[in-house]
Amino acid sequence: MFRTSKILTFCALAMTLALQSAEAAPDAPTAMPVPMPLSTSLAGAWSLVRVDNVYPDGHRVELYGPNPQGLWLIDAQGNYMMQMVRAQRGRFAANDKSQGTAEEYRAAAMDSNAHFGRVSVDGTTLHTHIEHASFPNWDGKDGTSAYSLKGDELSYTVAKPSSGAGDGAHGEVVWRRVR
């Protein structure tokens, strides 16, 4: 519980600083757009339950392994920050981020996903606008996903995930509200 409250405090501070930065420089090319409407039922902190690619034959690939870790913070105006990581990740042998091997950098990129932006809902459709992401190809991207909210569980599908889509996969992501 203490660890979760520290993480939430840190993420809230980071979101506040990012929003203040955008407001301080409204003419800057990276200034965030006006927040989109959001159902208050999604506002809050969410913990990652699973994130899988599901293939046409029904088999699943756990993108971040068993028991992935993640946090999705959504404020009442629709601003969000999201991070997903593999629970067990390899360390860099040099203990220096700038001295990694090609394999270590690849593993670090594949074992984590972070982005922030805006989210809104319309019926059973979740709309996102990614401002910036750890995968730079997503910067500035808009997306829509079918979603459902049942009690404290939020799930959505990703029609074309960033990996596996060429093989016909779709993504399934499940979050649980942090209480």
Task: Describe it.
- There is one protein chain.
- The chain has helices spanning 2-24, 102-110, and strands spanning 44-54, 60-62, 69-74, 79-85, 112-122, 125-133, 142-150, 153-158, 170-177.
- The protein has 179 residues and is α+β, with helices and mostly antiparallel strands.
- It has a single domain (32-89, 99-177), classed as Lipocalin, CATH 2.40.128.280.
- 18% of the residues lie in helices and 39% in strands.
- The model is unreliable at 2-35 (pLDDT under 50).
- Strand 6 (125-133) and strand 7 form a beta hairpin.
- 20% of the residues are buried.
- The protein has two helices and nine strands.
- Strands 1-3-4-5-6-7-8-9 form an eight-stranded antiparallel beta barrel.
